[in-house]
Amino acid sequence: MKKAVRLTALAGAAALALSACGAAPEETTGGEATSDFKPCIVSDAGGFDDKSFNQLSFEGASAAAEELGTELVDVQSASESDYKGNVESLVAEGCDAIVTVGFALSATTIESATENPDIDYILVDDAADADFDGEADAENIKPLLYDTAQAAFLAGYLSAGYSEAGKVGTFGGMDFPTVTIFMDGFKQGVDYYNETKGTDVELVGWDGEKGSFTGGFAADPAAKTTAQNILDQGVDVILPVGGPIYQSAMDAIADSGEDVALVGVDADFYESDPATQDIVLTSILKGMDVSTKEAVVASGNEEFDPAPYVGTLENGGVDLAPLHNFEDKVDPALWEEVQTLKESIIAGDVEVKSYLAE
């Protein structure tokens, strides 16, 4: 039985816990609560307005709270140093389920889940497997994972076919598996296009083992310089992987004066950020909103299942966004090939390699 929320009794403890991490958690879902179940969410340093995975996870948790007739409590992290204090504040707040967004929160999530076995933890984008034994390190953590290599494979194939320069590029925030899985899939898609078409489209920024990284996930001068270095090599499609760093890529594209298409990640950039609409070819989608909502609703209904969720093309957890404004710029035959390729991946006729493929 989930414990009832006692906001008054917990207020003092929550205030003490928050003294080290800034603003107090906010109850964000409007309306009078009809359930005593309390869902909570903490962002990584990107914040909930990153137009990417933090925002999608927040939207999913908000939708779950609305469906359950309760209020979502959220707290944002400004930096890595906020993670532990923010999660502790949600424990003190009396949360029944805590969504932690991003692999950077994995260690904190494992620690908190171990200390609080009666709370359900939902970890977005990490397996919570610090000892690499194939299982989450606490029985009350549900990992939400996404085999984005499959959708990135489609984006790589599309980009190679679209490119007139015969060069496409990618770069990432940091050299982590949840970043390089996009870059790996993208490379495999470019390679597959070359194999099937007898072409030699070049990928700049990732060779399958090493590549270009900004060193963080902020839209800062380092990200813009990294993007510019890729653009200077003559690419006409670029895939930035790492939340807000795509904004720096947009600035670099604008400064270059060249006709370069952008490939988005996580959310459909055309929908989430109207500023991208004239340059975004497509986006590699991760259904974090849907999977987060389902996990929180299950917790609220006493049906929490800690088994890892892995999003694939087959179950709709990953996908490729529509072409939107590029529909008239992409050869219809190429787009049809991409759709056929998607079905071939689902059927197992075309193999996409990734650390989640098994």
Automatic annotation (TrEMBL):
Stored PROSITE patterns: PROKAR_LIPOPROTEIN
InterPro entries registered for this protein in UniProt: BMP_lipoprotein, Peripla_BP_I, PnrA-like
Its membrane topology: Lipid-anchor
Keywords carried by this UniProt record: Cell membrane, Lipoprotein, Membrane, Signal
Compartments where found: Cell membrane
Residues annotated as signal peptide: 1-22
Domain ABC transporter substrate-binding protein PnrA-like: 42-305
UniProt-listed Pfam families: Bmp
Family from the record: Belongs to the BMP lipoprotein family.
PANTHER family the UniProt entry points to: ABC TRANSPORTER GUANOSINE-BINDING PROTEIN NUPN, TRANSCRIPTIONAL ACTIVATOR PROTEIN MED
Protein name as annotated: Basic membrane protein A
Organism encoding this protein: Promicromonospora iranensis
Lineage: Bacteria, Bacillati, Actinomycetota, Actinomycetes, Micrococcales
